[in-house]
Specification:
The protein is 71% helix and 0% strand. By secondary structure, the chain is mainly alpha-helical. It is globular.
Amino acid sequence: MSTREPFHITSRFLIAIFLAFMLIGAATFIFQASGDHPEKAWQTYLINFLMFSAMAQGGLLFSVVMNTVNARWSRSLDTVSESFAAFFPVSFLLFLILFLGSGHVFPWLHDDLHGKEVWLNLPFLFIRDAIGMLVLYLLGLAYLYHSLWFKLSSDSRGGPFKRLLIRHWTTHSPDPDTFRRRMTLYGNLYILAFTLVLSLIGFDLVMSMDPHWYSTLFGAYTFVKAFYVGLGAVIILAAILHLNRQVGFEVRPSQFHDIGKLFFAFCMVWGDFFYVQLVVIWYGNIPEETAYLIQRTMIPPWNILAWTVFLIGFILPFLILINKQIKTMPKAMIMICLTVIVAIWLEHALLLGPVYAPDAGRLPFQVIDILISMGFLGLMAFSIATFFNQFPELITRKPEEVS
């Protein structure tokens, strides 16, 4: 009889791979940040911080929205969605670390801001963003705490966090109706905080890099994009767990179809925001706005990147997801969602790259971009694996158990 450990997300083999990714990313970042061009390390760090934080924030939002509208079809997917909250403490710590590289991240530090210094100064920026992210994450974790009460059993499986929660709930005997109301309240507050805090992050950590350009639509564009990639991440994780029969997690074809439709809808919403922002700036023809647009869509090498983002982030998934059958195929959805996530990563590079390398003759991508990104991927995967190690029953229930 084979004694090899099952190959799933909580196996020691995969956790070792996640740790290796983290070490490779950390070593690459430290090596580059301590070298002659530390700015490259910090700029890649910022792109990945924005990207992976958005995936975690948008991933949990799926469960929150489904609970708010009392959707029953998504019950088994909720546990996958909620696992992304495990990245929240890591994301907050990564944001605090970003302060160490502020001199390489914010190009406006020594510029004449023509009165915008009141808003664009480091102490105020980091304080307000840290408070905003802390509120968002605490609301998300409060929602998760109440949600787990309805899902966890008192069996012996799980880690110390589960045992601590079970002991606490056994002592206090919470009322189900009270817990349900509190869960809904925290969920609604999380949705509100998601829109406000993601807008603030978009303004402060992306739009402000070119301090003379502004867009009133950019905040909404930021949180719509976060939900788009969050849905993609939920689909990928659910499909991986579903395809591995050793895990015991199953998703019905109808559930894949429904979340695929939601992903398709936000593909169109993101594409619409992308287009509307472009058209308004184009027809407004205001120099402060058009210069930003021209540099990213008409001047090489950024115009190539802009078309790449539009094609693989919108056109390709739009044309493929029109087909109903594709949405029920886990392997196909993994590939489509991975493509979209790569496109949004490149879109962050498109928004920030021309500020950091205005005279670049070619796209300034290097091997360190991949290696540092691997580190962030390892951090997220390790956080999710740790979550399921603490609460293993969340990925072993069949769809009928939660319907």
